[in-house]
Amino acid sequence: MDILSLSHISKRFGRLPVIKDLSFSVPEHSVFGFIGKNGSGKTTTMKMILGFLSMDGGEIKVCGEKVVYGSSKTNRFIGYLPDVPQFYPYMTPKEYLALCGKVAGLSAERTAKRSQELLTLVGLDGIDRRIRGFSRGMNQRLGIAQALLSEPKLLICDEPTSALDPIGRKEILDILAVAKTSTTILFSTHILSDVERVCDNIGVLDEGVLKLEGNLNDIKNSYRQDTALISLADPGRNQELMEGLSQLSIIKGCTEKERDVVVRFTGTEAARRQILELLLSRNLPLVRFELLEPTLENLFLEVVQ
Ligand SMILES: Nc1ncnc2c1ncn2[C@@H]1O[C@H](COP(=O)(O)OP(=O)(O)OP(=O)(O)O)[C@@H](O)[C@H]1O
């Protein structure tokens, strides 16, 4: 079942179109990485999912219910962590969650039990000092605890790791990996290694257009055999190799990387044969021919160019 679905969403600010015919869905208990450069439209999309911004076209459904601008009805299914969460700095984490529980209409008993579980999950259990003076990582962790308090079906996090150091980032990603067992997560980011660590599905947004979407492993597999690294015994002849490669119709491009040549091609078997025939015909002795694992970074650069 899809917890979230967007179909043909469009949005403009004045005359500027910022979201163009955007459609994707997020299945239950998955982590969806919403990827895009600054200004690509991620926050705008999340605000429309939360009903904080109107849409110019299309439909968003959360748990099968239509999102209506200005109405927070579907937000009962959602926990939201903004990019810079704000708290009452004079409270302790426990006091703050008790207040949030009250505002959300949870019983005191339920809030106390849930707070205990969540503070343990985010590593803030036993921290009785005031929130003032918390590190950015601690703030983000408390923000996740707050967002999960009402046991939402969908957790939306806006760039949860962007301002953190590698240890802080890992802590957040580990928490999201655990949270995934009880909720569904959509998080926006431009840090591709974070996406590779926790996401099941991804969507790459570029200037309001979804350029790539699907299961992360499927996407990587579909690009798997498209890139190869060629090491010649004499790297001084790399230019000659690249000239020859550029004359083959199956070659999409090639570049020199240190002492090697990286070549992108279409068609797998036939392409490999043609490349090897070229090496033989030009008498270019080979030291290594390796199909490269696609990295998300390469895919990203390819689709957003
Ligand atoms: N309230 C607004 N009025 C006018 N233009 C806006 C408004 N909010 C966002 N924009 C523009 O819409 C585009 C998308 O912005 P958005 O904040 O959604 O991008 P983003 O992908 O979240 O970027 P970032 O990673 O920098 O937060 C940008 O060009 C931005 O300048």
CATH topology name of the largest domain, in short, is: Rossmann fold
Question: How many β-strands, per DSSP?
Answer: 14
Distance between the termini: 33 Å
Structural category is alpha/beta
The low-confidence parts are none
Rg on CA atoms, Å:
24 Å
Shape call = elongated
Number of helices: 10
Order of helices and strands: EEEHEEEHHHEHEHEEHEHEEHEH
Total number of distinct structural domains: 2
Mean of all residue-level pLDDT scores: 91
CATH class of the largest domain: Alpha Beta
Major sheet summary line: 6 strands, mixed
CATH superfamily of the largest domain: P-loop containing nucleotide triphosphate hydrolases
* Portion in beta strands: 25-35%
Please bin the fraction of helical residues. 25-40%
Q: How are the strands of the largest sheet arranged?
A: 6-7-8-3-9-10
Tell me the CATH architecture of the largest domain: 3-Layer(aba) Sandwich
Q: What molecules are bound to this protein?
A: adenosine-5'-triphosphate
Family: Belongs to the ABC transporter superfamily.
InterPro entries: AAA+_ATPase (IPR003593), ABC_transporter-like_ATP-bd (IPR003439), DrrA1/2-like_C (IPR025302), P-loop_NTPase (IPR027417)
Domain ABC transporter: 4-232
GO molecular function, one term: ATP hydrolysis activity
